[in-house]
Structure formats: structure tokens, C-alpha cells
Amino acid sequence: MKSFIVSDLCKKKPSIRLVLATVALGMGLDAPSISRVIHCRPPTSLEAYMQKIGRAGRKGQSSEAILYYNNNDKG
Known about the structure:
The protein is built from 3 helices and 2 strands.
């Protein structure tokens, strides 16, 4: 299933419009069709956050990063 998702996301016009995934899916993924990354809690560091949101907006495309959190998420 992962190989199907990755190959579809790498197409210029993928048929998949939404993927819920862990960071493992994004490792090494270069999919220009990704335009939005949503986090449900803060990452462990600023570097980790930059790595994760870097999956979107490849090759000069516009992108959006959204982070949902609450005060209980603070470490």
C-alpha cells in the first residue's frame, strides 16, 4: 500500500487527495503535489518541524503548514 501511495503522490496529477501518515512516509519523499501539511501536536524541535513541513511546496509551489496544539502539549 505504501508504494502505491508514494508512487501516486509523485505524479503530476495524483488521484489521492488526502493522506494521514506518520513521519516515516515523508522520509525521502519528493512529491510536488503536496501543498499542505497539518500537525496535530507540536513536533519535538524546530528542526523536526522544518523537516516535516518541507514535504510541501516543492519546486517553488506554494504551500501551507498548519499546527494544532493546546497548552497541555507544551513540554
